[in-house]
Specification:
Blueprint (H helix, E strand, L loop, with lengths): L16 H18 L13 E6 L5 H12 L3 E6 L11 H9 L5 E6 L4 H8 L3 E7 L5 H15 L6 E5 L6 H12 L3 E5 L15 E2 L3 H7 L2 E4 L15 H8 L3 H5 L6 E3 L12 H4 L6 H20 L5
Parallel strand pairs: 1-2, 1-3, 3-4, 5-6, 5-8, 6-7, 8-9
The protein binds N-carbamoyl-L-aspartate (NCD).
N-carbamoyl-L-aspartate binds next to helix 2 and helix 6.
InterPro entries: Asp/Orn_carbamoyltranf_P-bd (IPR006132), Asp/Orn_carbamoylTrfase (IPR006130), Asp/Orn_carbamoylTrfase_sf (IPR036901), Asp_carbamoyltransf (IPR002082), Asp_carbamoyltransf_Asp/Orn-bd (IPR006131)
Subunit structure: Heterododecamer (2C3:3R2) of six catalytic PyrB chains organized as two trimers (C3), and six regulatory PyrI chains organized as three dimers (R2).
Organism: Leptobacterium flavescens
Length: about 300
């Protein structure tokens, strides 16, 4: 396969395993590029990309922007707090205004689930979903699986537990889709109140005892508690959450093997993960960030090659 089967990256659920393999192979090449003294290739000199962030972001926004610049694309940035959205403009109008300035690709983060899919039906540009509410965050799942492949050789057959706030997490949903597609075994672990009712229909198992989950897995992906998405309390206190679902060194040292620890960031040090674990050799958190740029370069490059000029 030399081309993606899709024209947009709206979610992992629209991809085939071969798409992910192609993205990984392309990312291998770009990872080598970004480790050269000159970290840039001229591939996308004729492409203009708009980064539309209707929700706060630090690392995802920076990572996309770096990926675009390293491919030599022209980049414009927009964040909702300073925009006409606040003046009552619709999403389609906002984006069409931007596109009339001859933009080829849109990277969008939006608080509403499905915002990317909606936009793809109304505008004529390639769209990358950089996180839509509690729905999907496909590039995060791609970089997560890519980082597992880098550390453990392959994703297929590996046992991965996703720990924490599964209910509000787009990272969890996209990860589940990607890991299953690549043949990993997936469990989720967290307070029952933060596990969606439909979780078993996704082909994953539930384990509410963190110690058992850690004993079972090769990789633990620790999620942040998404306080900004909770208008009610889902557990009695942060301290109790940490006692039951936080990973610390004592817990890891008691296992008879060394597991890989992941976190999509931003970390709440001392809540879902202690500092000594976050900064330990078994954590690949900064490798995930580094791989994010290579993965996003690969996705942008592959989608751009499908744009008809
Ligand atoms: C995640 C997000 O925004 O969905 N962060 C990220 O993109 N690196 C996860 C989170 O906010 O906890």
């Amino acid at each position: 396969m030399s081309q993606l089967s899709v024209d947009h990256l709206l979610g992992i659920k629209y991809l085939k395993a071969e798409d992910i393999e192609l993205i990984f192979e392309t990312a291998d090449h770009f990872k080598e590029v970004i480790n050269r003294p000159i970290k840039k290739v001229p591939s996308l000199r004729d492409i203009t990309i708009a980064n539309l962030f209707f929700e706060n972001s630090t690392r995802t926004k920076l990572s996309f922007e770096l990926a675009e610049k390293r491919l030599s694309a022209d980049v414009i940035n927009f964040s909702a707090s300073q925009s006409s959205v606040k003046k009552g403009e619709t999403l389609v109008d906002t984006v069409n205004n931007i596109l009339s300035m001859k933009v080829d690709m849109v990277v969008m983060r939006h608080p509403n689930p499905g915002a990317g899919v909606f936009l793809s039906r109304h505008i004529d540009a390639s769209i990358i979903n950089a996180g839509d509410g509690a729905h999907e965050h496909p590039t995060q799942a791609l970089l997560d699986s890519y980082s597992i492949r880098e550390r453990l050789g392959e994703v297929g057959g590996k046992k991965v537990v996703i720990v924490g706030d599964i209910l509000h997490s787009r990272v969890a949903l996209s990860n589940i889709f990607a890991l299953k597609l690549l043949g990993a075994q997936v469990k989720v672990c967290g307070p029952k109140t933060l596990l969606p009712k439909y979780i078993n229909s996704l082909g994953v198992e539930v384990e509410t005892d963190l110690r058992k989950a850690l004993e079972w897995c090769d990789v633990a992906n620790m999620l942040r508690v998404q306080n900004e998405r909770m208008d009610i309390s889902y557990f009695p206190s942060t301290r109790e959450y940490t006692q039951q679902f936080g990973v610390n060194k004592t817990l890891l040292d008691a296992l008879d093997k060394e597991i890989v620890i992941m976190h999509p960031g931003p970390i709440n040090r001392g809540v879902e993960i202690t500092s000594d674990v976050a900064d330990s050799k078994q954590a690949i958190i900064l490798n995930q960030v580094e791989n994010g740029v290579a993965i996003r370069m690969a996705v942008i490059y592959l989608l751009a090659s499908k744009i008809k000029k």
